[in-house]
Specification:
There is one protein chain. The protein is an alpha+beta fold. 29% of the residues lie in helices and 22% in strands. The chain contains four helices and seven strands; from the N terminus they run αβββββββααα. A hairpin with a 2-residue loop joins strand 2 and strand 3. The radius of gyration is 16 Å and the shape is globular.
């Protein structure tokens, strides 16, 4: 397993609709394992494959003691909404805004073996499923903002020196980022 670099806003892969997974085998199992390890390393609630530069419909999650992965997810959302909560994103470091999300979500898809998966969640888990599936559709949480929050977020992104943020974030994560070809961290 390896801890992978997380792509930062501005990377085109984050704005591309990810391809459905059609091949199941050792490469997919390694992708899921690496994504899980990367997500845990940065203490994220979820991680979508495009965030590590892979344009495939896969996400991992870990919220409230529930964890796993879903491949080729399809969401079924409740009709009502949960109270807005501040969301952040590993691909937009240093920024957080309240986002409107559905109260409950049922996600269906498959696991790394192609076996059916169905997970239902409310609150933070539902929020995570919606956030990660947005990534698979080329949508960032800032796209869901409205009014002054949207203006403020766009201004913050415009004014942020994401080259410097990327360098700092990469340097911070470099202590644990490895490679599937070796050259990982040394103790």
């Amino acid at each position: 397993m390896a801890i992978l670099n997380i792509r930062i806003i501005g990377d085109p892969v984050l704005r591309t609709v990810a391809d459905p997974v059609t091949e199941f085998g050792p490469e997919l199992a390694k992708l899921v394992a690496d994504m899980t390890e990367t997500m845990e390393d940065v203490e994220g609630a979820g991680l979508a494959a495009p965030q590590i530069g892979v344009s495939q419909r896969v996400f991992t999650y870990r919220v409230g003691g529930r964890d796993g992965h879903v491949i080729n997810p399809v969401l079924e959302n409740s009709d009502d909404y949960q109270p807005d909560q501040v969301e952040g994103c590993l691909s937009i470091p240093g920024l957080g805004f309240p986002v409107r999300r559905f109260r409950a979500t049922k996600v269906t898809g498959v696991d790394l073996n192609g076996d059916p998966v169905t997970v239902e969640g409310e609150g933070m888990l539902a929020r995570c499923f919606q956030h990660e599936t947005d990534h698979l559709d080329g949508i960032l949480y800032t796209d869901r903002l409205k009014g002054d929050d949207r203006k403020s977020a766009l201004r913050s992104i415009r004014n942020a020196n994401y080259d410097a943020i990327t360098e700092r974030t990469t340097a911070k994560r470099a202590k644990t980022v490895g490679s599937s070809f070796g050259g990982g961290p040394t103790a």
